[in-house]
Design goal:
Two copies of one chain form a homodimer. Chain A has 122 residues and is α+β, with helices and mostly antiparallel strands. Chain A is 28% helix and 25% strand. The first copy, chain A, starts with 5 loop residues before the first helix and ends in a 5-residue tail after the last strand. At the A-B interface, strand 4 and strand 5 of A face strand 4 and strand 5 of B. The structure holds a DNA duplex (30 and 30 nucleotides).
Chain lengths: 122, 122
DNA sequence: CCCCTAATGATAAACTACTATCAATAATCA
DNA sequence: TGATTATTGATAGTAGTTTATCATTAGGGG
């Protein structure tokens, strides 16, 4: 990432505007608003360099392709809208997950996904 | 699923013996202990009919292929071992997830994944 | 014990997500 | 402005998972 191109500005713009975990497809569609001829390969290439530089990070989602979100945010979890398919961030964390862990098992990380309707769809 | 074959008995046996969410590959390897010539297509076919009959259900996992577990169990969540890659069930549930949900959003379901080391690997 | 056909194994094909290739384009700097 | 070369778009290719095909095998009723 040595040159500042319209494509990269558009992708960064979508991240900043949406502020939620985005699929490559969502990024493509969002970026094509300002750069209509953008191709999916450019999205993947840009995501790769943004990930390697630590600007964005991968979010693995159950039963869906990977999403990408801006790195460095406070600990949070995700809400997936069954209607529109968009995924949102939720601040905070359920406490006391340790009590779920069976004896002899060691907890290192955790993920929480809540499913339902977002404010636009409910 | 009209006939009771050695292959299907073997697959049901793996489910009952392991009692955790299994990948098609894990089911294949487990079933091949008793039916060595078993093919992957048979695993998928059997999973399809077991799913349609409501005997097993799909578990979507972040960043992994689908797993299958015996249906009808009490509400529970999953533990994934970073060392051996196996996934386990954990009884219970963290309470008070509702407070994570943003205003205007409606919660319908939730999933919790805990990552770490299982008792065999820790 | 036969026969019918459901079920199987091997493998090709489909599908999705992602990566590599390469000629054309455009950002940067002298 | 012109040259250099990073970047792009289009598309072929790759990888992993799941499904379809089809000749062969074997379950189970008669």
């Amino acid at each position: 990432m040595q040159r500042d191109t319209a494509q990269r500005r558009a992708i960064r713009g979508v991240f900043n505007q949406e502020n939620r975990p985005l699929t490559p497809q969502e990024l493509l569609e969002g970026a094509q608003v300002t750069v209509p001829q953008m191709g999916l390969a450019t999205v993947y290439r840009t995501l790769k360099s943004l990930t390697e530089s630590g600007t964005v990070m991968v979010v693995d989602v159950p039963g869906e392709p990977q999403r990408y979100e801006i790195a460095g945010k406070d600990h949070h979890h995700h809400f997936s809208c069954k209607q529109c398919g968009r995924m949102f961030e939720m601040d905070g964390c359920p406490g006391d997950l340790e009590r779920l862990v069976p004896d002899g098992f060691v907890m290192e990380d955790h993920e929480v996904f809540i499913y339902g309707r977002c404010s636009d769809c409910s």
